[in-house]
Amino acid sequence: MASDRCYYYYEDDDDADADGDGEEEVEWLAMEADEDDVGLLEEDDLHLRLPDDRPADCWAITQESLPAAQQQDLSMVMNLLNIKQHHARTLLIHHRWKMHCIYDHLDRKGRDRMLSEACIILPKNSMSAASSTSVTCNVCFEDFSMTDVSTMDCGHCFCNDCWTEHFFASINTGNRQIRCMEVKCKAICDEDIVRRLLSLKYPAASKRFDLLLLESYLEDNDSVKWCPSAPHCGRAIQVGTGEKYCEVACPCGVSFCFNCAGQVHSPCPCAIWEKWKAKGHGDSDSVKWILANTKSCPKCSKPIEKNGGCNLVHCKCGQCLCISGHSCNRYKEENGDKVDTSRQQMQRYTHYWDRYNIHAGSYKVEQKDLGPAVEEQVKKLESNLTGPKMNWDGSWLAMAYQSLLTSRQVLSRSYAFAYYMFGGGEVKTHPSECSNLAVAQNLFEDRQEQLERHVEHLSKELATDLLGMPEEIVLKKVEIANLAKIVQAICGQLYRCIQDELLPLLFQPMNIAAYQPDGPDKAKEFIRA
Protein backbone atom coordinates (compact mmCIF):
# COMPACT_ATOMS: atom_id res chain seq x y z
CA MET A 1 0.00 0.00 0.00
CA ALA A 2 3.02 2.29 -0.09
CA SER A 3 2.53 5.31 -2.30
CA ASP A 4 4.07 8.72 -2.81
CA ARG A 5 0.85 10.61 -2.21
CA CYS A 6 -1.38 8.09 -0.45
CA TYR A 7 -4.73 9.31 -1.85
CA TYR A 8 -6.70 6.09 -1.18
CA TYR A 9 -9.38 6.56 -3.83
CA TYR A 10 -11.90 3.82 -3.14
CA GLU A 11 -14.18 4.18 -6.16
CA ASP A 12 -14.44 5.71 -9.62
CA ASP A 13 -16.53 8.86 -9.69
CA ASP A 14 -18.11 7.78 -12.96
CA ASP A 15 -19.24 4.44 -11.55
CA ALA A 16 -20.48 6.01 -8.33
CA ASP A 17 -22.45 8.66 -10.17
CA ALA A 18 -23.93 6.19 -12.63
CA ASP A 19 -25.13 3.80 -9.96
CA GLY A 20 -26.02 6.47 -7.44
CA ASP A 21 -24.61 4.29 -4.64
CA GLY A 22 -21.52 6.22 -3.62
CA GLU A 23 -22.89 6.42 -0.09
CA GLU A 24 -23.28 2.64 0.18
CA GLU A 25 -19.72 2.17 -1.11
CA VAL A 26 -18.34 4.30 1.70
CA GLU A 27 -20.33 2.43 4.30
CA TRP A 28 -19.19 -0.93 2.90
CA LEU A 29 -15.54 0.11 3.16
CA ALA A 30 -16.07 1.22 6.71
CA MET A 31 -17.33 -2.23 7.64
CA GLU A 32 -15.17 -4.42 5.41
CA ALA A 33 -12.60 -5.21 8.10
CA ASP A 34 -14.92 -7.11 10.40
CA GLU A 35 -14.00 -9.72 12.93
CA ASP A 36 -13.75 -12.53 10.35
CA ASP A 37 -11.22 -10.61 8.28
CA VAL A 38 -8.82 -9.69 11.06
CA GLY A 39 -6.80 -12.87 10.70
CA LEU A 40 -6.37 -12.27 6.97
CA LEU A 41 -4.95 -8.76 7.30
CA GLU A 42 -1.20 -8.31 7.35
CA GLU A 43 0.45 -5.73 9.58
CA ASP A 44 1.47 -3.68 6.51
CA ASP A 45 -2.17 -3.50 5.41
CA LEU A 46 -3.02 -1.64 8.59
CA HIS A 47 -0.04 0.69 8.49
CA LEU A 48 -0.56 4.35 7.66
CA ARG A 49 2.58 6.02 6.32
CA LEU A 50 4.17 8.64 8.51
CA PRO A 51 4.53 12.18 7.12
CA ASP A 52 8.34 12.01 7.27
CA ASP A 53 8.32 9.05 4.86
CA ARG A 54 7.26 11.30 2.00
CA PRO A 55 10.13 12.56 -0.17
CA ALA A 56 10.81 16.28 0.12
CA ASP A 57 9.25 18.37 -2.66
CA CYS A 58 10.52 21.68 -1.31
CA TRP A 59 13.61 23.07 0.41
CA ALA A 60 14.27 25.70 3.03
CA ILE A 61 17.09 28.04 2.00
CA THR A 62 18.92 30.12 4.59
CA GLN A 63 21.16 33.12 4.01
CA GLU A 64 24.18 30.84 4.34
CA SER A 65 22.89 28.24 1.83
CA LEU A 66 21.45 30.76 -0.66
CA PRO A 67 24.67 31.11 -2.75
CA ALA A 68 24.95 27.31 -3.05
CA ALA A 69 21.30 26.96 -4.06
CA GLN A 70 21.69 29.65 -6.71
CA GLN A 71 24.96 28.21 -7.99
CA GLN A 72 23.31 24.82 -8.40
CA ASP A 73 20.86 26.22 -10.96
CA LEU A 74 23.52 28.35 -12.64
CA SER A 75 25.86 25.38 -13.07
CA MET A 76 23.05 23.33 -14.57
CA VAL A 77 22.42 25.93 -17.31
CA MET A 78 26.13 26.59 -17.88
CA ASN A 79 26.78 22.89 -18.48
CA LEU A 80 23.65 22.46 -20.58
CA LEU A 81 24.38 25.32 -23.00
CA ASN A 82 28.16 25.73 -22.56
CA ILE A 83 27.90 29.43 -21.66
CA LYS A 84 29.43 31.74 -19.05
CA GLN A 85 27.87 32.32 -15.64
CA HIS A 86 26.52 35.80 -16.35
CA HIS A 87 24.89 34.48 -19.52
CA ALA A 88 23.30 31.66 -17.54
CA ARG A 89 22.02 34.11 -14.94
CA THR A 90 20.56 36.39 -17.61
CA LEU A 91 18.76 33.45 -19.22
CA LEU A 92 17.40 32.22 -15.89
CA ILE A 93 16.16 35.69 -14.89
CA HIS A 94 14.55 36.08 -18.32
CA HIS A 95 12.59 32.86 -17.71
CA ARG A 96 12.12 33.62 -13.97
CA TRP A 97 14.41 30.71 -13.04
CA LYS A 98 12.05 28.15 -14.59
CA MET A 99 14.17 25.29 -15.88
CA HIS A 100 11.23 23.67 -17.66
CA CYS A 101 10.80 26.86 -19.75
CA ILE A 102 14.47 26.76 -20.75
CA TYR A 103 14.19 23.11 -21.81
CA ASP A 104 11.02 23.91 -23.76
CA HIS A 105 12.53 26.91 -25.59
CA LEU A 106 15.72 24.98 -26.31
CA ASP A 107 13.72 22.16 -27.87
CA ARG A 108 11.42 24.41 -29.94
CA LYS A 109 13.71 27.29 -30.90
CA GLY A 110 17.24 26.04 -30.59
CA ARG A 111 20.15 27.39 -28.57
CA ASP A 112 21.04 30.49 -30.60
CA ARG A 113 17.51 31.84 -30.98
CA MET A 114 16.71 31.23 -27.32
CA LEU A 115 19.82 33.16 -26.23
CA SER A 116 19.12 35.98 -28.67
CA GLU A 117 15.57 36.46 -27.35
CA ALA A 118 17.04 36.83 -23.86
CA CYS A 119 19.44 39.57 -25.15
CA ILE A 120 22.47 37.31 -24.68
CA ILE A 121 25.28 37.95 -27.12
CA LEU A 122 28.07 35.40 -27.18
CA PRO A 123 31.62 36.62 -28.00
CA LYS A 124 33.00 35.59 -31.36
CA ASN A 125 35.57 32.81 -31.25
CA SER A 126 37.85 34.54 -33.74
CA MET A 127 38.42 38.16 -32.78
CA SER A 128 41.02 40.15 -34.65
CA ALA A 129 43.69 41.70 -32.49
CA ALA A 130 43.73 45.45 -32.27
CA SER A 131 46.14 46.95 -34.77
CA SER A 132 46.81 50.01 -32.63
CA THR A 133 48.10 50.35 -29.10
CA SER A 134 45.46 52.95 -28.07
CA VAL A 135 41.70 53.22 -28.20
CA THR A 136 39.36 56.23 -28.12
CA CYS A 137 36.57 56.00 -25.59
CA ASN A 138 33.28 57.08 -27.19
CA VAL A 139 31.96 58.39 -23.85
CA CYS A 140 34.72 60.74 -22.69
CA PHE A 141 36.46 60.93 -26.13
CA GLU A 142 39.90 60.43 -24.69
CA ASP A 143 42.57 58.02 -25.88
CA PHE A 144 43.57 55.09 -23.65
CA SER A 145 45.97 52.19 -23.86
CA MET A 146 44.55 48.71 -24.32
CA THR A 147 45.19 47.94 -20.65
CA ASP A 148 42.92 50.80 -19.55
CA VAL A 149 39.85 49.75 -21.52
CA SER A 150 37.40 46.85 -21.27
CA THR A 151 35.39 45.13 -24.00
CA MET A 152 32.09 43.35 -23.41
CA ASP A 153 30.75 40.30 -25.25
CA CYS A 154 28.95 42.57 -27.71
CA GLY A 155 32.32 44.03 -28.85
CA HIS A 156 31.78 47.56 -27.51
CA CYS A 157 34.83 49.03 -25.83
CA PHE A 158 35.06 51.93 -23.38
CA CYS A 159 37.60 53.13 -20.87
CA ASN A 160 37.62 51.58 -17.40
CA ASP A 161 36.78 54.88 -15.69
CA CYS A 162 33.59 55.32 -17.71
CA TRP A 163 32.66 51.70 -17.21
CA THR A 164 33.19 52.06 -13.45
CA GLU A 165 30.94 55.11 -13.16
CA HIS A 166 28.31 53.41 -15.29
CA PHE A 167 28.37 50.34 -13.04
CA PHE A 168 28.23 52.47 -9.89
CA ALA A 169 25.22 54.49 -11.11
CA SER A 170 23.37 51.34 -12.17
CA ILE A 171 23.89 49.64 -8.82
CA ASN A 172 22.73 52.73 -6.92
CA THR A 173 19.41 52.46 -8.76
CA GLY A 174 19.09 48.80 -7.75
CA ASN A 175 19.75 47.44 -11.24
CA ARG A 176 21.15 43.92 -10.99
CA GLN A 177 21.42 43.41 -14.75
CA ILE A 178 23.74 46.11 -16.05
CA ARG A 179 23.55 46.66 -19.79
CA CYS A 180 26.23 47.93 -22.17
CA MET A 181 26.71 51.72 -22.46
CA GLU A 182 26.44 51.70 -26.25
CA VAL A 183 23.20 53.23 -27.52
CA LYS A 184 20.50 50.62 -28.25
CA CYS A 185 22.78 47.77 -27.14
CA LYS A 186 20.96 45.33 -24.85
CA ALA A 187 23.91 43.09 -24.00
CA ILE A 188 24.43 42.33 -20.28
CA CYS A 189 27.84 43.26 -18.92
CA ASP A 190 30.22 40.55 -17.72
CA GLU A 191 29.87 40.09 -13.95
CA ASP A 192 33.62 39.49 -13.52
CA ILE A 193 34.47 42.81 -15.19
CA VAL A 194 31.87 44.61 -13.05
CA ARG A 195 33.34 43.20 -9.84
CA ARG A 196 36.93 43.87 -10.86
CA LEU A 197 36.44 47.51 -11.77
CA LEU A 198 34.11 48.34 -8.85
CA SER A 199 36.43 46.76 -6.28
CA LEU A 200 39.21 49.19 -7.30
CA LYS A 201 37.21 52.39 -6.68
CA TYR A 202 33.90 51.44 -5.00
CA PRO A 203 34.42 48.24 -2.93
CA ALA A 204 31.12 48.74 -1.09
CA ALA A 205 29.29 48.91 -4.42
CA SER A 206 30.99 45.67 -5.45
CA LYS A 207 29.56 43.94 -2.38
CA ARG A 208 26.18 45.52 -3.07
CA PHE A 209 26.33 44.09 -6.60
CA ASP A 210 26.91 40.56 -5.27
CA LEU A 211 23.97 41.03 -2.90
CA LEU A 212 21.73 42.15 -5.74
CA LEU A 213 22.66 39.04 -7.73
CA LEU A 214 21.73 36.87 -4.76
CA GLU A 215 18.45 38.71 -4.30
CA SER A 216 17.57 38.04 -7.93
CA TYR A 217 17.33 34.36 -7.04
CA LEU A 218 14.51 35.24 -4.64
CA GLU A 219 12.80 38.22 -6.28
CA ASP A 220 12.93 37.03 -9.90
CA ASN A 221 12.25 33.36 -9.11
CA ASP A 222 8.68 32.03 -9.25
CA SER A 223 9.79 28.88 -7.42
CA VAL A 224 11.24 30.62 -4.33
CA LYS A 225 9.45 32.76 -1.74
CA TRP A 226 10.30 34.10 1.69
CA CYS A 227 8.70 32.39 4.66
CA PRO A 228 5.99 34.79 5.96
CA SER A 229 6.86 34.11 9.62
CA ALA A 230 6.92 37.04 12.05
CA PRO A 231 9.51 37.64 13.37
CA HIS A 232 11.14 36.41 10.19
CA CYS A 233 13.02 33.13 10.50
CA GLY A 234 15.46 34.05 7.73
CA ARG A 235 14.44 31.21 5.38
CA ALA A 236 13.17 31.16 1.83
CA ILE A 237 11.18 28.16 0.55
CA GLN A 238 11.95 26.62 -2.84
CA VAL A 239 9.35 24.37 -4.47
CA GLY A 240 9.53 22.20 -7.55
CA THR A 241 9.20 23.68 -11.01
CA GLY A 242 5.58 24.39 -11.88
CA GLU A 243 4.38 23.87 -8.28
CA LYS A 244 2.87 27.34 -7.88
CA TYR A 245 -0.35 26.11 -6.29
CA CYS A 246 0.86 24.21 -3.25
CA GLU A 247 1.01 24.48 0.52
CA VAL A 248 4.31 24.21 2.35
CA ALA A 249 5.58 24.09 5.92
CA CYS A 250 8.81 25.88 6.84
CA PRO A 251 11.14 24.21 9.39
CA CYS A 252 10.33 27.14 11.70
CA GLY A 253 6.79 25.73 12.02
CA VAL A 254 4.89 28.21 9.82
CA SER A 255 2.67 26.70 7.10
CA PHE A 256 1.48 28.85 4.20
CA CYS A 257 0.06 28.88 0.69
CA PHE A 258 2.94 29.28 -1.74
CA ASN A 259 0.84 31.16 -4.28
CA CYS A 260 -0.48 33.98 -2.05
CA ALA A 261 1.90 33.59 0.96
CA GLY A 262 -1.15 33.57 3.26
CA GLN A 263 -2.23 30.89 5.69
CA VAL A 264 -3.08 27.50 4.22
CA HIS A 265 -6.65 27.56 2.89
CA SER A 266 -7.25 24.67 0.49
CA PRO A 267 -9.67 23.57 -0.87
CA CYS A 268 -10.55 27.27 -1.14
CA PRO A 269 -8.84 29.20 -4.01
CA CYS A 270 -6.72 32.18 -3.00
CA ALA A 271 -9.11 34.80 -4.42
CA ILE A 272 -12.16 33.32 -2.68
CA TRP A 273 -10.28 32.89 0.58
CA GLU A 274 -9.29 36.58 0.59
CA LYS A 275 -12.93 37.56 0.09
CA TRP A 276 -14.04 35.26 2.91
CA LYS A 277 -11.46 36.57 5.39
CA ALA A 278 -12.24 40.19 4.52
CA LYS A 279 -15.97 39.58 4.97
CA GLY A 280 -15.42 37.73 8.24
CA HIS A 281 -13.36 40.57 9.72
CA GLY A 282 -16.10 43.06 8.94
CA ASP A 283 -19.26 41.06 9.68
CA SER A 284 -18.29 38.45 12.25
CA ASP A 285 -19.60 40.28 15.33
CA SER A 286 -22.93 41.10 13.70
CA VAL A 287 -23.27 37.58 12.36
CA LYS A 288 -22.62 36.04 15.76
CA TRP A 289 -25.28 38.21 17.35
CA ILE A 290 -27.86 37.56 14.63
CA LEU A 291 -27.11 33.85 14.65
CA ALA A 292 -27.56 33.59 18.41
CA ASN A 293 -30.53 35.91 18.89
CA THR A 294 -32.70 36.18 15.78
CA LYS A 295 -34.51 34.04 13.25
CA SER A 296 -37.04 34.64 10.49
CA CYS A 297 -40.58 33.54 11.17
CA PRO A 298 -41.44 30.69 8.75
CA LYS A 299 -44.99 32.07 8.41
CA CYS A 300 -44.65 35.85 8.00
CA SER A 301 -40.87 36.02 7.34
CA LYS A 302 -40.38 38.82 9.86
CA PRO A 303 -37.17 38.75 11.92
CA ILE A 304 -37.59 37.65 15.52
CA GLU A 305 -35.19 38.63 18.29
CA LYS A 306 -34.69 36.25 21.19
CA ASN A 307 -34.83 38.25 24.45
CA GLY A 308 -35.30 35.43 26.95
CA GLY A 309 -33.58 32.24 28.02
CA CYS A 310 -35.81 29.77 26.22
CA ASN A 311 -35.17 28.99 22.54
CA LEU A 312 -38.90 28.30 21.96
CA VAL A 313 -40.52 31.60 20.94
CA HIS A 314 -43.86 32.82 19.55
CA CYS A 315 -44.15 35.32 16.71
CA LYS A 316 -46.83 38.03 16.75
CA CYS A 317 -48.53 36.22 13.88
CA GLY A 318 -49.01 33.23 16.18
CA GLN A 319 -46.30 30.98 14.69
CA CYS A 320 -44.26 28.94 17.19
CA LEU A 321 -40.61 28.22 16.35
CA CYS A 322 -37.29 27.26 17.88
CA ILE A 323 -34.46 29.78 17.55
CA SER A 324 -31.76 27.09 17.61
CA GLY A 325 -33.37 24.88 14.97
CA HIS A 326 -31.15 22.22 13.34
CA SER A 327 -30.34 22.05 9.63
CA CYS A 328 -27.97 19.98 7.49
CA ASN A 329 -24.88 21.03 5.55
CA ARG A 330 -26.97 22.21 2.56
CA TYR A 331 -28.38 25.72 2.56
CA LYS A 332 -32.08 25.91 1.60
CA GLU A 333 -33.46 29.28 0.57
CA GLU A 334 -36.85 30.46 1.72
CA ASN A 335 -39.42 30.96 -1.01
CA GLY A 336 -42.33 33.34 -1.18
CA ASP A 337 -43.17 36.96 -1.88
CA LYS A 338 -42.79 38.02 1.75
CA VAL A 339 -39.19 36.94 2.08
CA ASP A 340 -36.88 39.80 3.02
CA THR A 341 -33.97 39.71 0.52
CA SER A 342 -31.42 41.34 2.80
CA ARG A 343 -32.52 39.09 5.64
CA GLN A 344 -32.23 36.07 3.38
CA GLN A 345 -28.68 37.04 2.37
CA MET A 346 -27.73 37.36 6.02
CA GLN A 347 -29.26 33.97 6.80
CA ARG A 348 -27.36 32.42 3.96
CA TYR A 349 -24.10 33.89 5.24
CA THR A 350 -24.78 32.78 8.81
CA HIS A 351 -25.45 29.24 7.55
CA TYR A 352 -21.96 28.92 6.07
CA TRP A 353 -20.26 31.05 8.72
CA ASP A 354 -21.70 28.90 11.52
CA ARG A 355 -20.49 25.63 10.00
CA TYR A 356 -17.12 27.13 9.15
CA ASN A 357 -16.69 28.14 12.79
CA ILE A 358 -17.98 24.84 14.18
CA HIS A 359 -15.31 22.80 12.40
CA ALA A 360 -12.62 25.41 13.06
CA GLY A 361 -13.48 25.24 16.75
CA SER A 362 -13.47 21.43 16.70
CA TYR A 363 -10.02 21.52 15.12
CA LYS A 364 -8.68 23.67 17.95
CA VAL A 365 -10.21 21.42 20.61
CA GLU A 366 -8.89 18.26 18.94
CA GLN A 367 -5.47 19.83 18.57
CA LYS A 368 -5.35 20.95 22.20
CA ASP A 369 -7.05 18.07 24.03
CA LEU A 370 -7.14 15.05 21.72
CA GLY A 371 -3.52 15.38 20.60
CA PRO A 372 -2.00 14.76 24.06
CA ALA A 373 -4.52 11.95 24.61
CA VAL A 374 -3.43 10.23 21.38
CA GLU A 375 0.22 10.56 22.39
CA GLU A 376 -0.59 8.94 25.71
CA GLN A 377 -2.41 6.11 23.93
CA VAL A 378 0.64 5.51 21.71
CA LYS A 379 2.88 5.30 24.79
CA LYS A 380 0.52 2.80 26.43
CA LEU A 381 0.43 0.65 23.29
CA GLU A 382 4.21 0.59 23.04
CA SER A 383 4.68 -0.22 26.73
CA ASN A 384 1.91 -2.81 27.12
CA LEU A 385 1.89 -4.64 23.81
CA THR A 386 5.55 -4.94 22.87
CA GLY A 387 6.39 -8.60 22.42
CA PRO A 388 7.55 -11.19 19.91
CA LYS A 389 4.16 -11.34 18.15
CA MET A 390 2.94 -7.76 18.71
CA ASN A 391 5.50 -5.49 17.10
CA TRP A 392 3.45 -2.25 17.06
CA ASP A 393 4.93 1.23 17.31
CA GLY A 394 1.65 3.17 17.41
CA SER A 395 2.43 5.12 14.24
CA TRP A 396 -0.92 4.14 12.72
CA LEU A 397 -2.71 5.92 15.54
CA ALA A 398 -0.64 9.10 15.11
CA MET A 399 -1.27 9.06 11.37
CA ALA A 400 -5.01 8.62 11.86
CA TYR A 401 -4.97 11.61 14.20
CA GLN A 402 -3.13 13.67 11.55
CA SER A 403 -5.77 12.65 8.99
CA LEU A 404 -8.45 13.86 11.39
CA LEU A 405 -6.82 17.29 11.80
CA THR A 406 -6.27 17.73 8.06
CA SER A 407 -9.82 16.69 7.13
CA ARG A 408 -11.28 18.91 9.86
CA GLN A 409 -9.58 21.93 8.28
CA VAL A 410 -10.74 20.83 4.84
CA LEU A 411 -14.32 20.71 6.09
CA SER A 412 -14.13 24.15 7.66
CA ARG A 413 -12.73 25.82 4.53
CA SER A 414 -15.10 23.95 2.22
CA TYR A 415 -17.96 26.05 3.65
CA ALA A 416 -16.09 29.26 2.81
CA PHE A 417 -15.73 28.00 -0.76
CA ALA A 418 -19.38 26.92 -0.96
CA TYR A 419 -20.64 30.33 0.19
CA TYR A 420 -19.11 32.12 -2.81
CA MET A 421 -19.38 29.29 -5.33
CA PHE A 422 -23.09 28.67 -4.88
CA GLY A 423 -24.68 32.11 -4.95
CA GLY A 424 -22.34 34.42 -3.05
CA GLY A 425 -22.72 37.01 -5.81
CA GLU A 426 -19.04 37.98 -6.00
CA VAL A 427 -17.89 34.94 -8.02
CA LYS A 428 -19.36 34.82 -11.52
CA THR A 429 -20.07 31.60 -13.42
CA HIS A 430 -20.80 31.15 -17.12
CA PRO A 431 -24.58 31.54 -17.71
CA SER A 432 -24.53 28.54 -20.07
CA GLU A 433 -23.22 26.32 -17.29
CA CYS A 434 -26.20 26.59 -14.93
CA SER A 435 -27.25 22.96 -15.36
CA ASN A 436 -23.68 21.75 -14.93
CA LEU A 437 -23.32 23.89 -11.81
CA ALA A 438 -26.39 22.29 -10.25
CA VAL A 439 -25.03 18.79 -10.89
CA ALA A 440 -21.57 19.70 -9.60
CA GLN A 441 -23.06 21.38 -6.51
CA ASN A 442 -25.01 18.25 -5.68
CA LEU A 443 -21.87 16.14 -6.03
CA PHE A 444 -19.89 18.57 -3.88
CA GLU A 445 -22.48 18.62 -1.10
CA ASP A 446 -22.75 14.82 -1.16
CA ARG A 447 -18.99 14.53 -0.66
CA GLN A 448 -19.08 17.23 2.02
CA GLU A 449 -21.85 15.46 3.90
CA GLN A 450 -20.04 12.09 3.72
CA LEU A 451 -16.81 13.68 4.92
CA GLU A 452 -18.58 15.40 7.81
CA ARG A 453 -20.10 12.17 9.07
CA HIS A 454 -16.93 10.09 8.84
CA VAL A 455 -14.78 12.80 10.40
CA GLU A 456 -17.06 12.87 13.42
CA HIS A 457 -16.89 9.08 13.60
CA LEU A 458 -13.09 9.11 13.43
CA SER A 459 -12.91 11.77 16.12
CA LYS A 460 -15.11 9.69 18.39
CA GLU A 461 -13.04 6.53 17.87
CA LEU A 462 -9.74 8.31 18.54
CA ALA A 463 -11.14 9.66 21.79
CA THR A 464 -11.88 6.16 23.15
CA ASP A 465 -9.45 4.16 25.29
CA LEU A 466 -7.64 1.47 23.28
CA LEU A 467 -6.46 -0.65 26.19
CA GLY A 468 -7.94 -4.15 26.38
CA MET A 469 -7.35 -7.63 25.04
CA PRO A 470 -5.01 -7.85 22.01
CA GLU A 471 -7.85 -9.10 19.81
CA GLU A 472 -9.98 -6.09 20.72
CA ILE A 473 -7.12 -3.70 19.94
CA VAL A 474 -6.57 -5.40 16.57
CA LEU A 475 -10.22 -4.82 15.71
CA LYS A 476 -10.02 -1.22 16.87
CA LYS A 477 -6.88 -0.71 14.81
CA VAL A 478 -8.62 -2.06 11.71
CA GLU A 479 -11.59 0.24 12.27
CA ILE A 480 -9.52 3.38 12.87
CA ALA A 481 -7.15 2.65 9.98
CA ASN A 482 -10.08 2.12 7.62
CA LEU A 483 -11.81 5.27 8.82
CA ALA A 484 -8.64 7.28 8.21
CA LYS A 485 -8.37 5.88 4.67
CA ILE A 486 -12.03 6.64 3.96
CA VAL A 487 -11.65 10.20 5.23
CA GLN A 488 -8.58 10.68 3.03
CA ALA A 489 -10.40 9.23 0.03
CA ILE A 490 -13.41 11.51 0.43
CA CYS A 491 -11.13 14.53 0.89
CA GLY A 492 -9.36 13.62 -2.34
CA GLN A 493 -12.67 13.34 -4.17
CA LEU A 494 -13.86 16.65 -2.72
CA TYR A 495 -10.72 18.33 -4.06
CA ARG A 496 -11.17 16.72 -7.46
CA CYS A 497 -14.79 17.86 -7.57
CA ILE A 498 -13.73 21.45 -6.89
CA GLN A 499 -10.77 21.48 -9.29
CA ASP A 500 -12.27 19.49 -12.16
CA GLU A 501 -16.02 20.15 -11.91
CA LEU A 502 -16.61 23.52 -10.23
CA LEU A 503 -13.67 25.86 -10.89
CA PRO A 504 -13.84 25.40 -14.71
CA LEU A 505 -17.34 26.92 -14.56
CA LEU A 506 -16.03 30.29 -13.34
CA PHE A 507 -15.24 33.33 -15.49
CA GLN A 508 -12.09 34.02 -13.49
CA PRO A 509 -9.57 31.15 -13.77
CA MET A 510 -8.78 29.67 -10.34
CA ASN A 511 -6.82 26.72 -9.00
CA ILE A 512 -6.33 25.06 -5.65
CA ALA A 513 -3.43 23.22 -4.06
CA ALA A 514 -3.49 19.44 -4.42
CA TYR A 515 -4.86 17.46 -1.51
CA GLN A 516 -2.15 16.19 0.83
CA PRO A 517 -3.30 13.72 3.51
CA ASP A 518 -0.25 14.50 5.65
CA GLY A 519 -0.79 18.26 5.51
CA PRO A 520 1.46 20.84 3.79
CA ASP A 521 4.73 19.67 2.25
CA LYS A 522 7.46 19.90 4.87
CA ALA A 523 10.48 21.79 3.57
CA LYS A 524 13.85 20.22 4.26
CA GLU A 525 16.89 22.31 5.05
CA PHE A 526 19.00 22.88 1.93
CA ILE A 527 22.48 21.47 2.62
CA ARG A 528 25.43 23.00 0.83
CA ALA A 529 27.42 20.47 -1.19
From TrEMBL:
<dbReference type="GO" id="GO:0016567">
    <property type="term" value="P:protein ubiquitination"/>
</dbReference>
<keyword id="KW-0833">Ubl conjugation pathway</keyword>
<dbReference type="GO" id="GO:0008270">
    <property type="term" value="F:zinc ion binding"/>
</dbReference>
<dbReference type="InterPro" id="IPR031127">
    <property type="entry name" value="E3_UB_ligase_RBR"/>
</dbReference>
<feature type="domain" description="RING-type">
    <location>
        <begin position="133"/>
        <end position="362"/>
    </location>
</feature>
<keyword id="KW-0862">Zinc</keyword>
<dbReference type="InterPro" id="IPR013083">
    <property type="entry name" value="Znf_RING/FYVE/PHD"/>
</dbReference>
<keyword id="KW-0677">Repeat</keyword>
<dbReference type="GO" id="GO:0061630">
    <property type="term" value="F:ubiquitin protein ligase activity"/>
</dbReference>
<comment type="similarity">
    <text>Belongs to the RBR family. Ariadne subfamily.</text>
</comment>
<keyword id="KW-0808">Transferase</keyword>
<comment type="function">
    <text>Might act as an E3 ubiquitin-protein ligase, or as part of E3 complex, which accepts ubiquitin from specific E2 ubiquitin-conjugating enzymes and then transfers it to substrates.</text>
</comment>
<keyword id="KW-0863">Zinc-finger</keyword>
<feature type="domain" description="RING-type">
    <location>
        <begin position="137"/>
        <end position="180"/>
    </location>
</feature>
<dbReference type="InterPro" id="IPR045840">
    <property type="entry name" value="Ariadne"/>
</dbReference>
<dbReference type="InterPro" id="IPR002867">
    <property type="entry name" value="IBR_dom"/>
</dbReference>
<dbReference type="Pfam" id="PF01485">
    <property type="entry name" value="IBR"/>
</dbReference>
<protein>
    <recommendedName>
        <fullName>RBR-type E3 ubiquitin transferase</fullName>
        <ecNumber>2.3.2.31</ecNumber>
    </recommendedName>
</protein>
<dbReference type="Pfam" id="PF19422">
    <property type="entry name" value="Ariadne"/>
</dbReference>
<comment type="pathway">
    <text>Protein modification; protein ubiquitination.</text>
</comment>
<dbReference type="InterPro" id="IPR044066">
    <property type="entry name" value="TRIAD_supradom"/>
</dbReference>
<keyword id="KW-0479">Metal-binding</keyword>
<dbReference type="InterPro" id="IPR001841">
    <property type="entry name" value="Znf_RING"/>
</dbReference>
